[in-house]
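Readers outside the structure-tokenisation community will struggle with the description of the input data as it stands. I therefore recommend that a typical entry be quoted early in the introduction. An entry of this sort, consisting of the sequence and the corresponding backbone structure tokens, reads as follows:
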Amino acid sequence: MTALRVLSAQRRPRYVMGWIALDWAAILLVVFAWGCLRGTAAEVPLAVLGMAVVGIQQHALALWLHEGSHWLFFTDRRVNDAFTSVVLAAPLCVSLPGYRSRHFAHHQHLGTGQDTKRVAFTVIRGWQFPRFCVEVLLGGGFLRRAGEFYGTYEETGEKAYWWLPVAVAQGLLFGLFSLLAKPEAYLLFWMLPLVTIKQLVAGLRAILEHQPLRGDPRGYVRPLEPTWWEHVVFFRAGFDYHWEHHQHPGIPCFNLKFVRDEAVHPRTSPTATETLWNIVRG
């Protein structure tokens, strides 16, 4: 117990802020590069590739938002929440208290009818997998999750004001993207990836982590051993130790490797691709 308390007490704000800064830098670099190459043959290919990159980076920011929702950035919870709200939650169009309320309910009611991570139990067997991907890429996933998230704010007493910091953050992003490229860059490289690519990556990750496989005794959360590219796309901010996180939610992501149980999470655990194939084929 003493070792767990030590692991839970540690905070590395420089580590956290460094990775988050790199995620934001990648997004801004895409916008700047597109602005420089507008009117050339590279404009359209870069726009398509850039939207994919930004959507993946937005998902990475959402994973850091998850870490901040557990108060794992700073020892001072007020500083933790201020940083998480300004740098992560508001840009991603959510409020931290609303996100935290839903996420903690996911921990408390994992695998039950009250589990708030409903996308994790979407059936994607056979032909339903491409149907799921198309629906999410057309914005259906964002609309469904928006209804779930924003309905939570009434429960937390936020409904009257939660949108204010979000509106300010979107205004700042619009101005920054306009400065780096053109005003339309905000729609192309922020809102469009946010409602499409980011939702697809987040939905697939939730399914990979939580949808039970037939005969798997571990139930509604599973250990995975992602490849390097799966880590980049799906499992940053310690999410390659998501099984460990559900056992010890108060331990920061950089310490989860120290509570890994080889009997449950061996190095031979399936990759994300292997797990997805097993889910799709049923």
